[in-house]
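[agent] plan:
  1. take the single chain provided in the ticket
  2. run structure prediction with default settings
  3. attach structure tokens to the ticket
  4. add a short note for the reviewer (M.T.)
[agent] executing step 1
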Amino acid sequence: MVVVIDMEKCGQIKDCPGEGLCIKLCEQGALKEVDGELVLVPENCDDCDLCIQNCPNQAISKG
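[agent] step 2 finished; step 3 output follows
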């Protein structure tokens, strides 16, 4: 099951206390920054849950 990003909780990368930690942790390239926003590339997600476990805003979950 692919992850879901709650954009209200997430905000923008520049406002993230983890400074885009989810992007840095994703070895599959499923999370990217596009114009300051977090974007999911679902076909790259391997359900490792690292982004969910490490999001300081609890903005990422299973959908």
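[agent] step 4 note for reviewer: Residues 3-62 form a domain with the Alpha-Beta Plaits fold (CATH 3.30.70.20).
[agent] ticket updated
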